[in-house]
Amino acid sequence: MANRPRSRSRADSRSGLAPDATDGPPSGSSSPIVELLGIFVLVFVLQTVTALIGVGVMAGLFVLAPPLTTNPWTIVTSVYAHGGLGHLVSNSVALVVFGWPVARATTRLRFHVFFAVTGAIAGVSQIVLSGAFAGLPFVGDWFAVRPVLGASGAVFALLGYLIASNRLSTGLASFVDVPDWVSALVFLGLAVAVTLATAAPGVALLAHFAGFLVGLVAGRLRVLQVGSRAGNGPTV
């Protein structure tokens, strides 16, 4: 009996998340990551095949573009699609790095739902907010309304979740009592900094920002935590 707490502590250290984030029946494996990588490859093959029929056919199935009501299914399918082999490889590597510890601390279903929902939010945010910011002086070209596809928004959400829910962040939050508005400002500042660090021509900056910010809030709330204490995490 005395050895069980130490074994659990070692498991928590490997996961990189808060100790009680592993309560309940977590998946205990990286299978959601492998499944997502397989989906990425399958969708990429389907993109290639449908592009041979016509670029418009491929875009209608996998590319998120305004108006959102024209092809509403692309809100989800675009999350798993990519603009080229390099785009696919870079997002796959980032998924493994940031998603692996999160996948080990939650269930397969919660992980897949989190990935799809945050990716969809990021893509829609890119389309909607681009229209609002496109006319701004100096930076308007950065936010031109363009079609969106790729898993970057969801991957950034995983990064945000990992940062906000790891043992160090949780430990600091338990010792340092700060107002909610200060926490909100810190989250916004961190999201802006990470987004600007990835700035490049053609990059969906608003999708990165939205995904990372949603991930931070979700990590603070520990929405992927399983077990009886899943609803007792700190709030923003």
From TrEMBL:
<keyword id="KW-1133">Transmembrane helix</keyword>
<dbReference type="GO" id="GO:0004252">
    <property type="term" value="F:serine-type endopeptidase activity"/>
</dbReference>
<feature type="transmembrane region" description="Helical">
    <location>
        <begin position="36"/>
        <end position="64"/>
    </location>
</feature>
<dbReference type="InterPro" id="IPR022764">
    <property type="entry name" value="Peptidase_S54_rhomboid_dom"/>
</dbReference>
<dbReference type="GO" id="GO:0016020">
    <property type="term" value="C:membrane"/>
</dbReference>
<protein>
    <submittedName>
        <fullName>Membrane associated rhomboid family serine protease</fullName>
    </submittedName>
</protein>
<dbReference type="GO" id="GO:0006508">
    <property type="term" value="P:proteolysis"/>
</dbReference>
<feature type="transmembrane region" description="Helical">
    <location>
        <begin position="84"/>
        <end position="102"/>
    </location>
</feature>
<keyword id="KW-0645">Protease</keyword>
<feature type="transmembrane region" description="Helical">
    <location>
        <begin position="142"/>
        <end position="163"/>
    </location>
</feature>
<dbReference type="Pfam" id="PF01694">
    <property type="entry name" value="Rhomboid"/>
</dbReference>
<feature type="transmembrane region" description="Helical">
    <location>
        <begin position="114"/>
        <end position="136"/>
    </location>
</feature>
<keyword id="KW-0812">Transmembrane</keyword>
<keyword id="KW-0472">Membrane</keyword>
<feature type="domain" description="Peptidase S54 rhomboid">
    <location>
        <begin position="71"/>
        <end position="221"/>
    </location>
</feature>
<keyword id="KW-0378">Hydrolase</keyword>
<dbReference type="InterPro" id="IPR035952">
    <property type="entry name" value="Rhomboid-like_sf"/>
</dbReference>
<feature type="transmembrane region" description="Helical">
    <location>
        <begin position="175"/>
        <end position="197"/>
    </location>
</feature>
<feature type="region of interest" description="Disordered">
    <location>
        <begin position="1"/>
        <end position="29"/>
    </location>
</feature>
